Amino acid sequence: MHGEFPKQLLAKTRGGTRRMIVIAAVLIAIAAALYYVFGSSGPQQRRGGRFVAEGPVPVLVATTVRADVPVYLDAVGTIRALNTVTVRPQVDGKLLSVNFKEGDDVKKGDVLAKIDPVIYQAQLDQAIAKKAQDEAQLANARIDLERYEKLAATNAINKQQADTQRAMVAQITALVKADQAAIENAQAMLGYTTITAPIDGRTGIRMVDEGNYVRAADANSSIVVITQLQPISALFNLPQQDLPQVNTAFEKSPLNVEAQRSDTDAVVDRGVLRVVDNQVDQTTGTVKLKAEFPNDKLQLWPGQFVNVRLLVDTLKQVVVIPTGAVQRGPTGTFVYVVKDDDTVAVQPITVQKQDETQTVVSKGLEPPARVVTTGFVRLTDGTKVVVGGAETPAAQPADQRPQGQGGRRQRGGNSARPNAQK
Prior knowledge:
This protein is 27% helix and 36% strand. The chain has helices spanning 4-37, 118-153, 159-191, 243-252; strands spanning 44-47, 50-53, 57-63, 65-81, 84-87, 93-98, 105-106, 111-115, 194-196, 201-203, 213-214, 224-227, 232-239, 256-260, 267-281, 286-293, 305-322, 327-329, 332-338, 344-348, 350-354, 358-363, 370-374, 385-387, 392-393, 414-416. Strands 3, 18, 19, 20, 23, 24 and 25 form a seven-stranded mixed beta sheet that branches. Strands 4-13-16-15-14-17 form a six-stranded antiparallel beta barrel. Helix 2 runs antiparallel to helix 3.
């Protein structure tokens, strides 16, 4: 008994020591956390129901400017050739030669292929000979008619003979005209043995090889497809809600259109709007439009998908700020304006146009006000701030922006992209 009591006492002592160590460790951790949250920011004060740091809050700002802001309508378009022609034979025969290489650029009238002309040349010769025969008969009939008319005038012969001869002359004259038509038809058939390019364009893959027998009525006898690449068109759809704005702008002047790569938004080519379709698709509620591009560098290809931007308006000298500066609260949109004493004030604003990079403000701001773009977490009305880094420009002229860095767009909607004056 006396030996067990010291052991129990020793065990209790060790357990109490462990609990004290655990409690001390927890208290140290809590103190470190409190110091990390509150102590590292300097003195604290209660403001607006929460504790905030009394020291200046580091922020980044942008200066409000006035700029010309182009208004675009964005859509996804499909590139289409202005003209596409499937070259097919117009007569039957053996294909003697193919005079183009696949992928060649050809001009209208260039010889593409030749069909054996022997049969058609013979038909032409027959038609020419037949006409010569009928013309000889016509000449003889006219001589007889002249003789009969003189004899009938003196009552030497019956007038009926002269009338019959006159009818014979008319009949042979008609035969000669038919012979001429046969000659022209034979000449046309012979001309079809030389297949020429009907338009300027680029040839595709050859569909038939020389030496084959081709038929005009056989769809499988096509020679090649020629596609006009310069200029080229793009078809795209816009919501019917945009139709009044497009029509109003289109009546005033031609509308500029940009074709952009779908992956980088780099501008591939610039063109103009040519056609607004005359009806709205009732199944989709959209209207189809057609734009035309010069395609000088052959960056656009039939069947290709591109992003299309249609310029419908330009807002002149409006107030522009970065979209990152715009905040939203229970009462609407606002910004934090940095005053001359380096404190911020909450300024309600009215947004006219907005995209993911820049916002047009119609009411509430005037240049050169400075607005906070980064560091909103600890800001309240009247907070002291310190501006860090260089000020961010609120707008950049369009001709100074690198291609392909315009930011993401809202498809089929309005987007405002400032174009500040220099």
